Each structure stands twice: as C-alpha cells, then as structure tokens.
Amino acid sequence: MKKASVTLHEVAAAAGVSIATVSRALNGKDRVSGRTAEHVAQVAEQLGYRVNLIGRGLRAGTGATIGVVVPVISNPFYGELIHRLEDHLQRRGFDLVIADSHGDVDRERDRLRMLVERRVEGIFVVPSDAELSFEAVADTARRVPLVQLDRRVLDLPADFVGVDNDAGIDLAVEHVTSRGAKRVVLVSGNDVTSVGRERRAAFEATVRTRGLPHEESIFGEYLLSFGESAAEALLARGPLPDAIIAGDDLVAAGAIAALKHAGRSVPSDVQVTGFDGTMLADVCEPRLTTVVQPFDELAREATEALVRRMEDPEAPYVLSRLAPSLRVAESTTPAAPR
Predict the structure, then answer these.
(1) Residue 219's pLDDT band (boundaries 50, 70, 90)?
(2) Nearest-CA neighbor of 313 among 3, 5, 10, 6?
(3) CA–CA separation, 73 vs 319, rounded Å?
(4) Beta strand residue intervals within the chain, DSSP E
(5) Phi and psi for 250 in degrees, rounded to 5?
(6) Nearest-angstrom CA–CA distance, 130 and 262
(7) Buried b / exposed e across 302-335, counting CB within 10 Å, b at 16+?
(8) What DSSP character marks residue 17?
(9) CA pair distance 103, 70, nearest whole angstrom
(10) Which residues pair with 327 in a beta bridge?
C-alpha cells in the first residue's frame, strides 16, 4: 500500500539523490539528466509522493514549494528580502509561497499551520515575538524544516540567519560622533522582537563605551507613523539631540518628515541615520545615511541553511550573523553647494 504522506526527503533518500535534485527533476528543470529525472519520477510514483500536487505542478510549470512568513510585507525591507530569497530558491528548483502575519502571534500561528497543511517542503519565518512565538515556531520546526530569518525566538533550538545588529548600531553611532554629535538618541522598535532587543542593547553598550551622555530613548514599532510621533516627542522635550539613530529606514523617514514639517533642518539641526538600506533611503529628502543589510548574502545563507536541514534533519543548527555596512548620504552629511 502506498504511503499517503510521503515527503520529498523520503523520495530523495529512496532515489539516492539530493532534495534539490528531486525538486528539479519533478519540476522539469534543466541541470538534471534525462536518466536521473526518469529515475526520480519512478521512485516518486512508487512511493506515491503527492501524486495530485505533482501532476498539477508539472502542468503549471511549478515544483516543490517553500513557505515564508513575514510580519509586515509592506515594509520595504521584507519586500527586498523576499525578492532575493525567491531568486536563490528558483535556482534550486523551488517555488515560494508568501504569508503575512501582520506582526500578530495568533495570525502567525495560523499562517504556519496553513503552510504545514499545504505540505510545503520547508519554511522561513520572521517571528513576530521573541517569546510568544515560541510555541508555534517550535511546533512547526518539529514538522517541517524551518529557518528563522532576521528575527528569532529566544532559547529555541532552530536554524537562524540574520544581521549583526551590534555591528550595525556601532557603525551608525561611530559615524555621527565622528561628525561632532555628542547627544545621541535611539528611536527604534520595542523589546517585543529580538531585533528590537538587540539594537537597544547595542546602542546602550556603544554609548557607554564612548562615554556619551545618557539620553532617554524612544521605543515603538517599525512604522513610518512611529518615526513621526517619536520626532514630535523629541521636539516637545526641548533642545533636539545632535543625532537620531533610527531602528530602521521607515522610522528614520517618518522622523525626517516630522522634523521638516516643524521647520527643522536635517542634518544642520539634527543628524538622522536609518537601518536596513532599502530603496526608501534613496527617496528620502535628504537622502538617508543608513546601515545596509547584505540582502543577497542573507538570502543565500538562509537558503543553504534550509536545504541543509531538509537533507539532514540531524545537522547542527546554524546561527549566522552577517556583517552590515554603512552608506553615507545627506541626512548626516550636508550636500556640497552647487
């Protein structure tokens, strides 16, 4: 009797090839010899591997599917990251299904369950909460190969690929202080996410190390509107700080908009830096100095980590933090006079 829930891993093991080769073979992609493709197809048929979905996928020109759950798909950071992920997955013969949790733990659980029920071969997840996402992400990781991306759940043994937030915040603070800033304020995401916690801790550490005066930070969500309200709060406090270190490009853009509306000049009255390096940094006025995440490298390492987990469920967990860079623009450096 054929097994009703045969996985791609079992087909690969029975055929004696990698999961990526199975995916390409069943997807009709090149880089797989005719003999190998025929062998894989025979093994899949014998095992009864997803017969209906395979047939439908071949007719539609699609192959094995990977899911990704992000908290806010409208954030330019996740749009760019998904674009790069799709590129690397397609090279390996996989298609991508995107789900938005809207930063809500309950919706995140539902999206993960939906992807498992659709029998995706693997999942990338950007956890919406560093603690409350634990149960849903851990349960999913027991069922399907899973990689945490950008953010992670605390104390969860699972693969993770993200940026080195300590290095990124240090780059931003070093830059504004090299341009004369003494009073520096962090305006960033709150402690709900691992990214928010790490950027806050990194800022406090680098300010302490550099002997800068303590300034009360402002925390909220990674939204344009939060950047606006945070800048308004700083204006209400009294004299502006010399520099605002924003937790992402959206927050920075919102802060710049509010400062300009209040008649303040960036960077003459206050320097502003962002974090992520999205296209938003180039359309800000003035253009935004920002910590740039290595999008392509993040996507490549995450893809490799997921494929490794698919091929070997017992492989050691990956914990990868990639180095960011700083792109300097007019929000910290006045444009040269024409």
Answers:
(1) very high
(2) 10
(3) 24
(4) 65-70, 95-100, 122-125, 146-149, 159-163, 184-189, 218-220, 243-246, 271-276, 289-292, 319-322, 325-327
(5) -60, -45
(6) 36
(7) bbbbbbbbbeeeeeeebebebebebbebbbbeee
(8) S
(9) 8
(10) 290
Answer yes or no: are the C-beta atoms of 212 and 182 closer than 8 Å.
yes
Say how far apart CA 325 and CA 319 lie, in whole Å: 20
What are the backbone angles phi and psi of residue 29, rounded to the nearest 5°? -75, 160
Q: Domain ranges for the chain, please list them.
A: 8-60, 165-293
Is the separation of the CB atoms in 66 and 94 below 8 Å?
A: yes
CATH architecture of 165-293: 3-Layer(aba) Sandwich (3.40)
Under 8 Å between Cβ of 118 and 139: no
Is residue 148 a contact partner of residue 301, using CB atoms and an 8 Å limit? no
pLDDT of residue 38: 81
Short-list 19, 29, 48, 218, CA closest to 122:
19
- Could you give phi then psi for residue 141, rounded to 5 degrees? -65, -25
Question: Could you tell me which CATH number the domain at 8-60 has?
Answer: 1.10.260.40
Residue linked to tokens 């290595």: 294
1 CB neighbour count, 10 Å cutoff: 4
Per-residue pLDDT tens for 248-287? 999 999 999 999 999 999 999 999 999 999 999 999 999 9
| Torsions phi, psi for 202 (to 5 deg) | -65, -40
In 3D, which of 301, 329, 321, 332 has the Cα closest to residue 181? Answer: 332
pLDDT tens digits along 102-112: 999 999 999 99
The pair of three-digit structure tokens given for residue 301, joined into one six-digit string: 């390492």
- Indicate the pTM of the whole model: 0.82
Which tokens belong to 207?
A: 């300010």
For 137-181, what is the HEC assignment? HHHHHHHCCEEEECCCCCCCCCEEEEECHHHHHHHHHHHHHHCCC
